[in-house]
């Protein structure tokens, strides 16, 4: 039924002659930068045939196969696979009609053989019964170890056979096999060839296979001998051998190469490029792009232009939940196989937020301060004042004037507190009389010398002394007249927050968002990089998984991880560190989850755009500090100079941190601009990153 629908989707019936060829390549060119790998290559794989693609290492075989399956775009020319160009809307190539075994192993190391085949079975829409039946056959046929063996524990040859099994799984109409027999023993090699010969006999299956063992390709129905990006010859193996009077394919190939070299060198020495004589005349006068002994007329046939109507195109773009589910199950299985890594991922945010709450914003402890007290009486004001200093914060070291200053210059003390010998009487005079001499003012003051190299420490120290003097000492000595020493400024009850709000309270909301964001970036930044490197991304794409599906599957499965992380984070900040939350917990959770999605989507952008782990890591780490500092998480945005502040406001976490603070500490809801602005900016970044990542991934596969 599905097949019938699909056929109906395709616009016009295939032109006469097209259905006879599983693959047609016409004037195909492909370069990597300046390196021209395929030049005007023409090739035709007849339906129901095995096509052996032979050639020396580096001649462009793998490149050609990648162009055929559509993972590489061609620079010029035309390719049709099973009647339509690869990736044509509504076409099943890529999809279940094609089985592709890339040159790389392209297997998930944490999977068992059974997981691997089940994963590809799900993508191809096989029922579990069908997958099981095929799995049993393939394990037996490919002489694989037990199906519960982990891929990472298999030998090189066994892994290649699992990879071949994945290509054969859904009984595809077209098999594209890149060196399937490398590392396989001769008995099994013969068995694989025998199987290929059998499946093509039905006439419904076609195979294109590359191999370095030229002689084994004699079992192919057609061979193409490739060199320097062109086909030197194409035809049945016997015909190729006969034409070159060779007893082996290898010899025939050698002769073709020699002839080709001679022609090239003669062309080089004969500027006119006139026809060569005798035996070489055929070779030299022939069209370079046409192989000797072309299989049929396919190479000359006109390949029509294909079009698809908008409905088919629209349906082609829609993600398939089956594929998304298969990819998500894959990620969850991989996570299950790495329990320690998963636990670490869950615990990391808790460790980070605990460290922030414990180490950032607290009062100083154990500061060594030298005390030079020239008053000796135990009932003096200086002694009383010093007794109110918090001993856990300040460790007082009584010293002489000389030793105290020597100590502070040597960095032993953060400050010196000094009292004159008449401090008690002068301070009393200062408070009781309206007019006193300068000496009385000076002698009735506590003199403090501080090391100002640590600004924050100094501020905290000043606050501590003020608190000690005003709140404790003055209150104790002159409770009814304490206003005499106070500044004529009164701080009323706070509108929001409390008088005791510390720096930790300011930092925590931004830190929670930042931790969620960066852990999500870390989870995803390498996901495509590694999968691309191992050929898994291409393999899944050929199996019919689109870029959008890959992206959504990653997003959903990582959402599971960040959800657990967020629950643990909130439990810690609200219950263990007792951060206030005056607003809606639902809004808090939604905002943090959305920031996690921003992190995931930004990680996906990195991972789609960058090919190698080191660069991807550097990109993720490189934005960490600028973003942390510019987002007003550690220090308020209001302190950032213009025009940097504009940049700061455009970043994903600036308005979001502000919104989270407003929800948690002011109890505001979505009706307040400062709250909804945080949500809108976060959603905007999410959409932008996801679209960008999908586009980059699509352009690169
Ligand atoms: N991603 C790439 N970027 C740049 N050059 C590349 C890339 N992939 C392949 N090449 C170059 O293209 C040429 C053809 O490579 P290709 O892998 O197609 O050869 P091959 O015939 O399959 O070789 P082998 O039999 O050794 O696998 C080689 O010179 C190779 O260095």
Task: Please outline the helices and strands.
Elements: H1 2-9, E1 21-32, E2 35-46, E3 50-54, H2 61-69, E4 76-81, E5 98-101, H3 113-123, H4 128-141, H5 156-168, E6 174-178, H6 186-201, E7 206-210, E8 222-227, E9 230-235, H7 237-243, H8 249-269, H9 281-285, H10 310-317, H11 321-337, H12 339-359, E10 367-373, H13 381-388, E11 394-398, H14 401-409, E12 415-419, H15 423-432, H16 438-443, E13 447-450, H17 455-477, H18 503-524, H19 527-533, H20 536-542, H21 547-576, H22 585-609, H23 613-622, H24 624-630, H25 644-650, H26 654-666, H27 673-700
Parallel strand pairs: 3-7, 3-8, 5-6, 6-7, 10-11, 10-12
Antiparallel strand pairs: 1-2, 1-4, 8-9, 12-13
The protein binds adenosine-5'-triphosphate.
Adenosine-5'-triphosphate binds at residues 32, 35, 37, 55, 57-63, 103.
- What sort of overall outline do the alpha carbons produce when their principal axes are compared? elongated
Q: Major sheet, described briefly? A: 6 strands, mixed
SS element count, helices:
27
Overall mean pLDDT stands at: 86
Tell me the helix content.
40-55%
How many domains would you count in the coordinates?
A: 3
- The counted number of beta strands is 13
Ligand kinds: adenosine-5'-triphosphate
**Class from helix and strand fractions:** alpha/beta
From the N-terminal CA to the C-terminal CA, the straight-line distance is 30 Å
Evaluate the radius of gyration.
38 Å
Report strand order across the widest sheet: 5-6-7-3-8-9
Regions with little confidence, pLDDT below 50 for 5+ residues: 1-17, 270-286, 295-299
Tell me the fraction of residues in β-strands, as a range.
5-15%
């Amino acid at each position: 039924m599905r097949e019938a629908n699909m056929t109906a989707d395709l616009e016009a019936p295939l032109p006469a002659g097209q259905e006879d060829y599983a693959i047609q390549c016409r004037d195909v060119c492909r370069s990597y930068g300046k390196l021209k790998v395929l030049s005007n290559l023409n090739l035709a794989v007849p339906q129901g045939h095995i096509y052996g693609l032979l050639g020396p290492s580096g001649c462009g075989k793998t490149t050609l196969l990648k162009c055929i399956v559509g993972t590489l775009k061609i620079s010029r020319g035309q390719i049709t696979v099973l009647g339509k160009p690869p990736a044509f809307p509504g076409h099943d190539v890529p999809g279940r009609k094609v089985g592709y075994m890339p040159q790389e192993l392209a297997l998930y190391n944490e999977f068992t053989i059974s997981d691997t085949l089940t994963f590809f079975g799900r993508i191809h829409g096989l029922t579990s019964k069908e997958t099981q039946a095929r799995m049993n056959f393939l394990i037996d046929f490919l002489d694989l170890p037990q199906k519960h063996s982990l891929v990472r524990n298999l030998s090189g040859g066994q892994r290649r056979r699992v990879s071949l099994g994945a290509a054969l799984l859904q009984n595809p109409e077209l098999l594209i096999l890149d060196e399937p027999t490398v590392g396989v023993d001769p008995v099994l090699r013969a068995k694989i060839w025998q199987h290929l010969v059998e499946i093509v006999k039905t006439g419904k299956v076609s195979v294109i296979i590359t191999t370095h063992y030229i002689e084994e390709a004699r079992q192919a129905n057609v061979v193409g001998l490739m060199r320097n990006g062109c086909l030197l010859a194409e035809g049945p193996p016997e015909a190729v051998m006969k034409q070159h009077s060779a007893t082996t394919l290898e010899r025939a190939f050698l002769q073709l190469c020699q002839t080709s070299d001679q022609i090239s060198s003669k062309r080089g020495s004969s500027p006119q490029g006139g026809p060569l004589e005798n035996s070489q005349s055929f070779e030299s006068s022939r069209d370079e792009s046409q192989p000797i002994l072309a299989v049929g007329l396919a190479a000359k046939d006109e390949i029509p232009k294909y079009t698809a109507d908008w409905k088919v195109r629209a349906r082609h773009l829609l993600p398939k939940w089956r594929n998304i589910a298969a990819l998500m199950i894959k990620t969850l299985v991989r996570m299950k196989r790495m329990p320690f890594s998963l636990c670490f991922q869950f615990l990391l945010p808790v460790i980070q937020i605990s460290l922030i709450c414990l180490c950032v914003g607290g009062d100083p402890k154990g500061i060594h301060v030298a005390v030079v007290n020239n008053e000796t009486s135990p009932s003096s004001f200086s002694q009383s004042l010093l007794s109110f200093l918090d001993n856990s914060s300040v460790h007082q070291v009584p010293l002489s004037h000389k030793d105290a200053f020597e100590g502070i210059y040597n960095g032993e003390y953060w400050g010196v507190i000094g009292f004159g010998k008449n401090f008690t009487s002068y301070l009393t005079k200062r408070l009781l009389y309206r007019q006193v001499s300068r000496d009385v003012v000076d002698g009735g003051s506590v003199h403090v010398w501080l090391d100002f190299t640590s600004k924050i420490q100094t501020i905290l120290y000043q606050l501590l002394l003020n608190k000690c003097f005003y709140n404790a000492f003055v209150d104790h000595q002159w409770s009814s007249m304490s206003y005499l020493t106070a500044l004529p400024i009164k701080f009323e009850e706070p509108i929001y927050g409390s008088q005791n709000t510390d720096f930790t309270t300011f930092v925590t909301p931004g830190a929670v968002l930042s931790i969620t964001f960066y852990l999500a970036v870390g989870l995803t930044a390498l996901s495509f990089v590694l999968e691309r490197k191992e050929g898994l991304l291409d393999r899944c794409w050929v199996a019919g998984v689109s870029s959008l599906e890959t992206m959504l599957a990653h997003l959903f499965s990582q959402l599971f991880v960040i959800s657990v992380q967020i629950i643990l984070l909130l439990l810690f900040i609200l219950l263990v560190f007792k951060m206030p939350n005056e607003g809606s917990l639902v809004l808090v959770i939604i905002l943090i989850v959305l920031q996690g999605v921003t992190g995931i989507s930004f990680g996906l952008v990195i991972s789609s755009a960058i090919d190698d782990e080191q660069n991807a890591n550097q990109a993720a780490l490189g934005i960490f500090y600028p973003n942390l500092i510019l987002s007003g998480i550690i220090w308020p945005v209001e302190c950032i100079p213009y025009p940097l502040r504009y940049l700061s406001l455009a970043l994903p976490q600036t308005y979001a941190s502000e919104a989270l603070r407003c929800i948690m500490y002011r109890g505001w809801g979505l009706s307040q601009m400062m709250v909804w602005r945080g949500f809108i900016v976060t959603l905007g970044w999410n959409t932008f990153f996801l679209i960008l990542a999908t586009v980059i991934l699509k352009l690169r596969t």
